[in-house]
Amino acid sequence: MITAIKTGHSAITLDIGIISDTSHVPSFWKFNNSLLDDEAYLKLITDRILIWLTEISYNIDDRVQWDWIKYNIRKETTQYSKVKAKQRRERMNLIENKLKLVGEKVAEIPTIANQNDLKI
C-alpha cells in the first residue's frame, strides 16, 4: 500500500511476475491403441477388471462403476506404458552400445568376421 494524492484512501500496487518454473502436467490423456496388440497388457487389464468391480460393488450405479473402471484402466495403462518405454529405451541403449563397440572393432581390424558382427 502506498499513499495516494488528494484522497482519503491508500493506493494498492500489484506486481505480477512470470512464473518460469512451472511443471507441465498433461491435462488430456489419449489411449495408445497399439497396446491392444500386446497380449500381456490385455491379460493384465482383463484380470484386473474383476477386482475393480468387486472394489466398487457397494455402489449399484452403473455410471459410477464405469467411471471407476475407466479410472483404473487409465492408471494401469499409464504405469504399464512407462515400464514398457523404460524397457524399450534400455534395449535401444544396449543395441547402440553394442553397435558402437563392434564398429570400433571393425575400424581397428576390418575382417569379414568382425564385419558380420555388425549384423544385429
Walk me through what this model shows.
- The protein is mainly α.
- It contains three helices and two strands.
- It has helices at residues 39-55, 62-108, 112-116, and strands spanning 2-3, 10-11.
- A two-stranded antiparallel ribbon has the order 1-2.
- Strand 1 and strand 2 form a beta hairpin.
- The radius of gyration is 29 Å and the shape is flat.
- The N and C termini lie far apart (71 Å).
- 0% of the residues are buried.
- The mean pLDDT is 84.
List keywords for this structure.
single chain; mainly alpha; two-stranded antiparallel ribbon
Topology:
Elements: E1 2-3, E2 10-11, H1 39-55, H2 62-108, H3 112-116
Antiparallel strand pairs: 1-2
Helix pairs in contact: 1-2
Short description:
The protein has 120 residues and is mainly alpha-helical. 57% of the residues lie in helices and 3% in strands. The chain contains three helices and two strands; from the N terminus they run ββααα.
The low-confidence parts are none
Radius of gyration: 29 Å
Number of helices: 3
Coarse morphology: flat
Beta-strand percentage? under 5%
**Helix percentage range:** 55-70%
Largest sheet: 2 strands, antiparallel
Number of strands: 2
Strand order of the largest sheet: 1-2
Which sequence of SSEs, written as H and E, runs from N to C?
Answer: EEHHH
> Termini separation (Å)?
71 Å
Given helix and strand content, the structural type is mainly alpha
